[in-house]
Design brief:
Strand 10 and strand 11 form a beta hairpin. Strands 2, 4, 5, 6, 9, 12 and 13 form a seven-stranded mixed sheet that branches. A four-stranded antiparallel sheet has the order 1-3-8-7, with no helix packed on it. The chain is globular. The chain is mainly β and 123 residues long.
Length: 123
């Protein structure tokens, strides 16, 4: 069974930075893609970023482009989300996932999910 364990969330002032980490274990083969999603109170879950673990290519939701950067350390089975210039609207629970993908309607989903880590940005 796959386990995804996130860490690095916390409380930060607007304009500040946080780095989230996610360690993957328990899978007999490596996923090709990993991603981050978030869910704010009262809002639907949304895709944030994804990475091709082979090439390192990354892709982002428009509102975080230029502020967030996803990376990976394949030797450590770990992916990271560096979040800079944080805004109050970035406040959410952030989830690490394997195999993020859009369905035909454009809604994003994933195969495996971590337990989430809270990020709170104060104004």
């Amino acid at each position: 069974q796959v386990q995804l364990v996130e860490s690095g969330g916390g409380l930060v002032q607007a304009g500040g930075s946080l780095r989230l980490s996610c360690v993957v274990s328990g899978r007999s083969f490596s996923p090709l893609f990993m991603g981050w999603f978030r869910q704010a109170p009262g809002k639907e879950r949304e895709f944030v970023s994804g990475i091709n673990l082979g090439s390192g290519d990354t892709y982002y939701e428009d509102s975080v482009k230029g502020r967030f950067a996803m990376s990976r350390d394949n030797a450590r089975n770990t992916v990271y989300l560096q979040m800079n210039s944080l805004k109050p609207e970035d406040t959410a629970v952030y989830y690490c996932t394997t195999d993020p993908r859009p369905d035909p309607s454009g809604r994003w989903d994933a195969s495996d999910w971590g337990q989430g880590t809270q990020v709170t940005v104060s104004s």
